[in-house]
């Protein structure tokens, strides 16, 4: 994009005054950001428009990524970087006497997702545009994002996240593209004039779905795709059918708030309303577009791919069927072939508590026609499969079972592709969780290991590392992330290794400044920064990390002269508000932070920092500062993980169980550049199968484990009472579901080897370098290319 500093300054000054009727020098940070964002949006509208026009002219096949969650993070720098004008704007702002980074922080970070699943969707949106693919997002414009987390006396409290309080400069409301989504009512068959039977919906409650579009700017390639988020409103004109205030409130509630559960499903009516609302709106707008092309319906899958991000948008399947059957008059078989060829599905978890199931009666009442279609899909599935696989297998794969609708079953049966998000995860799906379906449809199953966009997670978050890379290996890695492997050539180069250490130190200092300013805790940037950032969940085992901290504390209390290198344990985690146990662990971590941070005999040897309100923006600050990346979930439980990839790309060394994508990280970096410990997935499976795990025996026989656990209940940690008891019981009395006790010794041993190696700066820096150099394959650009080639069958714009 041609643009110079002088022009920018002129345009910015003008834009600011246009918007606020006074000069930027008088403006607040928020206003300064709004003016800049507004200006930047104006810069790409032309290309946004022409991208759409090209897609129409070329009749390109397009993919629509349906996701209940998107976690884009602040968009200013990312848009500027991708437009190729980041440096120019930074310079211009500086010349205007404004602090660019501060202005950038004036943007609210839209928290329209919970964690990995939503962030993956946003990395994918960036990679789809940046690899020149025609693809768009479809989701919900929540009025309130994921709650803001505060700690009060060490307890998590949740505050509403009113992210739209200032205007959202990136979105464009498109009222003329609104559609009607219908709920409730009755389905009637009626004959038209020619005696043809048509399906009529009566007494439905009609809701207006209004799209808000946000540009997804590709990296220096002129491609600008669309993220379409739907907002529920009261219809006007002939569709208006609400009378009472309660009915109106009901409508607004649909897109009011994001459900705050991660890897756990909420079986509430409102949740399924949200799911149908955005699935239906998305399908309707895709159909509307397709009809403009004036093609045959059989060409629909040649022009359209629809991907569903986990089962949340699965109602897109019966919704597409409904429109093809009832509105477009296709027969069942033709509609079904089109639907299956169009839809593909990603599974993100094997945790049973996360598998969506809806009561049959609830769906029948809320979505009577959709229910009929699901029942018919189910009936035909069983009828077709019995003769081939027998009754038992056919019924085990039924969509409707014991009064419940199983969304994963519908997603698999109604799609042509089912993928897991790391090789181990896909293997477990095929061999265990979805084995029955794998027997029926082996060709549908495939793996697509997750990835991350290094544009946000390296170029934007870690400018110092970006400069170092450019200076050592050139800038090709930015277009072609595999090229980062060129860094390997410098693994014995002391100058580069030292420069890498300096970069890390700078990022650690930046984070230390933040911690001092916001929490009043002083941390030493030369200490090991040991980072665990992810949702608080028992299977992710933050508690194992805590056990290590307590053990280290006890060792130091016994012998203050032990020469452990200094460590700062950094946590960032939100707990679902209703997840009581996770909240108890938050309280426990805050309590041990109070105890240890204020123990003068420990001093700098251990510090604990639990940041409030962890999210994308904080991740951008923490990840570049990390030395150790804690990826310690129980093997077989974490589908993939993506913070593991972000941290390695920034030179942190992984403390890993062989779970999710950690396995592939190990394969890429080699055993000598990662700390691996703990049970393997098959070992865990075998314990579960045989029921021969006895946590109590370990507690009794392992004195270090016993001492650590006793601290939870003997009053040594001020401020916790019931929490300590509950956590102790979960481990000792209720047999430690996630095998923390079993993995404790090997975890401690791995932590000790990290201590030893950290003391050898040259060796540590080399390991860090090798992690960065081997992070290229985890770029979401490659992940997306594989989705495009193997599932969506779409080609990049030439
Ligand atoms: C949430 C509700 C239902 C089903 C699945 C989820 C879910 C899974 N939410 N987040 N995930 C995570 O997705 C990431 C992206 O694939 C994975 O890296 C991570 O392991 C999952 O836990």
From TrEMBL:
The keyword Membrane does not apply. One of its GO terms (molecular function) is pyridoxal phosphate binding. Its cofactor is pyridoxal 5'-phosphate. It is an enzyme of class 2 (transferase). Its EC number is 2.4.1.1. Keywords: Allosteric enzyme, Carbohydrate metabolism, Glycosyltransferase, Pyridoxal phosphate, Transferase. The modification N6-(pyridoxal phosphate)lysine is found at residue 646. The keyword Protease does not apply. One of its GO terms (biological process) is glycogen catabolic process. It holds the Pfam family Phosphorylase. It comes from the Bacteria. GO terms for cellular component: cytoplasm. It catalyses: [(1->4)-alpha-D-glucosyl](n) + phosphate = [(1->4)-alpha-D-glucosyl](n-1) + alpha-D-glucose 1-phosphate. Belongs to the glycogen phosphorylase family. Allosteric enzyme that catalyzes the rate-limiting step in glycogen catabolism, the phosphorolytic cleavage of glycogen to produce glucose-1-phosphate, and plays a central role in maintaining cellular and organismal glucose homeostasis. Phosphorylase is an important allosteric enzyme in carbohydrate metabolism. Enzymes from different sources differ in their regulatory mechanisms and in their natural substrates. However, all known phosphorylases share catalytic and structural properties. This is Alpha-1,4 glucan phosphorylase. It comes from Trichococcus palustris.
């Amino acid at each position: 994009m041609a643009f110079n500093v002088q022009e920018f300054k002129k345009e910015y000054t003008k834009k600011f005054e246009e918007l606020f009727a006074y000069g930027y020098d008088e403006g607040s940070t928020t206003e300064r950001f709004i003016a800049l964002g507004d200006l930047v949006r104006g810069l790409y509208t032309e290309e946004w428009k022409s991208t759409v026009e090209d897609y129409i002219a070329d009749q390109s096949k397009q993919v629509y990524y349906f996701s209940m969650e998107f976690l884009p993070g602040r968009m200013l720098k990312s848009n500027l970087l991708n437009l190729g004008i980041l440096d120019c704007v930074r310079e211009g702002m500086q010349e205007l006497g404004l602090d660019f980074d501060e202005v950038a922080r004036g943007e609210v970070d839209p928290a329209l997702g919970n964690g990995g699943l939503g962030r993956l969707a946003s990395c994918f949106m960036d990679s789809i545009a940046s690899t020149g693919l025609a693809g768009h997002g479809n989701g919900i414009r929540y009025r309130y994002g994921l709650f803001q987390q505060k700690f009060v006396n060490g307890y998590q409290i949740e505050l509403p996240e009113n992210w739209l309080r200032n205007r959202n400069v990136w979105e464009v409301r498109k009222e003329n593209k609104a559609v009607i989504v219908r709920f409730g009512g009755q389905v009637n068959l009626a004959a038209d004039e020619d005696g043809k039977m048509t399906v009529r919906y009566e007494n439905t409650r009609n809701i207006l779905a209004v799209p808000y579009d946000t540009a997804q700017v590709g990296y220096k390639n002129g491609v600008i795709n669309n993220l379409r988020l739907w907002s529920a409103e009261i219809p006007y004109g002939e569709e208006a059918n609400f009378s009472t205030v309660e009915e109106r409130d009901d409508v607004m509630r649909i897109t009011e708030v994001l459900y705050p559960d991660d890897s756990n499903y909420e079986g509430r009516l409102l949740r399924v309303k949200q799911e149908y609302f955005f699935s239906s709106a998305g399908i309707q707008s895709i159909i509307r577009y397709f009809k403009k092309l004036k093609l045959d319906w059989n060409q629909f899958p040649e022009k359209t791919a629809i991907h569903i991000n986990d089962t949340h948008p699965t109602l897109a399947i019966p919704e597409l069927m409904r429109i093809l059957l009832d509105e477009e008059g296709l027969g069942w078989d033709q509609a079904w072939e089109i639907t299956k060829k169009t839809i593909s599905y990603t599974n993100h978890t094997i945790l049973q508590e996360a598998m969506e199931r809806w009561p049959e009666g609830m769906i029948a009442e809320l979505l009577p026609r959709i229910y009929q279609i699901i029942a018919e899909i189910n009936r035909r599935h069983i009828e077709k499969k019995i003769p081939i696989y027998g009754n038992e297998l056919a019924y085990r794969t039924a969509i409707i079972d014991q009064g419940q609708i199983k969304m994963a079953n519908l997603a698999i049966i109604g799609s042509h592709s089912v993928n897991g998000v790391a090789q181990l995860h896909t293997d477990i799906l095929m061999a265990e969780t979805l084995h029955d379906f794998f027997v029926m449809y082996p060709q549908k199953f495939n793996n697509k290991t997750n990835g991350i966009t290094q544009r946000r997670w390296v170029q934007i978050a870690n400018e110092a590392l970006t400069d170092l890379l450019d200076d050592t290996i050139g800038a090709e890695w930015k277009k072609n992330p595999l090229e980062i492997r060129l860094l390997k050539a410098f693994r014995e180069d002391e100058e580069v290794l030292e420069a890498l250490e300096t970069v890390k130190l700078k990022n650690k200092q930046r984070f230390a400044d933040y911690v001092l300013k916001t929490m009043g805790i002083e941390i030493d940037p030369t200490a090991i920064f040991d980072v665990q950032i992810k949702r608080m969940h028992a299977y992710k085992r933050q508690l194992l990390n805590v056990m290590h901290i307590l053990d280290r504390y006890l060792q130091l209390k016994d012998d203050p002269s032990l020469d452990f290198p200094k460590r700062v344990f950094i946590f960032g985690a939100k707990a679902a508000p209703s997840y009581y146990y996770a909240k108890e662990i938050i309280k426990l971590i805050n309590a041990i932070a109070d105890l240890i941070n204020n123990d003068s005999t420990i001093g700098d040897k251990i510090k604990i920092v639990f940041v409030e309100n962890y999210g994308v923006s904080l991740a951008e600050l923490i990840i570049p500062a990390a030395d150790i990346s804690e990826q310690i979930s129980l093997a077989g439980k974490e589908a993939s993980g993506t913070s593991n990839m972000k941290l390695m790309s920034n030179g942190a060394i992984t403390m890993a169980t062989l779970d999710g994508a950690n396995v592939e990280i190990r394969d890429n970096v080699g055993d000598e550049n990662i700390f691996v410990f703990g049970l393997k997935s098959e070992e865990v499976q075998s314990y579960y199968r045989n029921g021969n795990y006895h946590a109590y025996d370990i507690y009794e026989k392992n004195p270090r484990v016993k001492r650590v656990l006793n601290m939870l209940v003997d009053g040594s940690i001020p401020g916790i009472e019931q929490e300590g008891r509950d956590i102790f019981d979960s481990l000792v009395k209720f047999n430690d579901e996630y095998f923390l006790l079993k993995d404790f010794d090997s975890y401690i041993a791995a932590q000790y080897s990290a201590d030893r190696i950290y003391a050898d700066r040259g060796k540590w820096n080399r390991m860090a370098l090798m992690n960065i150099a081997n992070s290229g394959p985890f770029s979401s650009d490659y992940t997306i290319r594989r989705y495009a080639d193997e599932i969506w069958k779409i080609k990049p714009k030439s």
